[in-house]
Amino acid sequence: MRKNINKKIIAYTDGGSRGNPGPAAIGVVIEGIGNEPKQYNEFIGEATNNEAEYQAVIFALKKIRQLAGREILKQIQVEIRLDSELVAKQLNGEYKIEEEKLQPLFMTVWNLKFDFGNLSFKHVPREKNRLADRLVNMCLDQQNSKLF
After folding, report:
1. Residues 108-124: tens digit of each pLDDT
2. What are the tens digits of pLDDT across the range 135-144?
3. What angle do CA 103, 42, 61 make, to 5 degrees?
4. Would 12 be classed as within a structural domain?
5. Could you give the strand order of the β-sheet that contains 5-17, starting from the edge strand earlier in sequence?
6. How many Å apart are CA 144 and CA 117, to the nearest integer?
7. Is the pTM higher than 0.85?
């Protein structure tokens, strides 16, 4: 195993848009790789809140795969925590994906799942996802300030 990778990786993800749809961003915090949590945020353009939530999960899965490597991912537990109950339940197969724009995003997550041995999606209250939420808002504030 690579150095500094725990037996469990936890990623907190959040996505949001101002306007729904409107300018959107994602925020991701990854714990369990290295000594300090890794933080990422990215402006994703025009999207709905749900599209942004999915984009955050996709970003987290790709980033974890890049940082840990495929061989290690087969041996460890990865948990994605998000405050969107809808997206969490869709990813866990509890809800159907009726919104057409979410279907390709769901399929992207579905295909990424094959790289992971033990992957779960867990809904958490917004209070437990504050850092990822803050990263989204920081990115949207920065983007907004570029406009003026």
Report:
1. 999 999 999 999 999 99
2. 999 999 998 8
3. 55
4. yes
5. 38-47, 22-33, 5-17, 77-82, 118-123
6. 40
7. yes
15: tokens are: 């996505």
Beta strands in the chain (DSSP E): 5-17, 22-33, 38-47, 77-82, 118-123
Task: Check: CB of residue 76 under 8 Å from CB of residue 115.
Answer: no
The answer as to whether 87 is a domain residue is: yes
Q: With 90 as the cut, is the pLDDT of residue 146 above it?
A: no
When divided into structural domains, the chain yields a total of 1
CATH number for the domain harbouring residue 110 = 3.30.420.10
Under 8 Å CB-to-CB from 21, ≥6 apart: which residues? Answer: 46, 47, 48, 51
Q: And the tokens for 35?
A: 């000594």
Q: By residue range, what is the domain housing residue 11?
A: 5-139
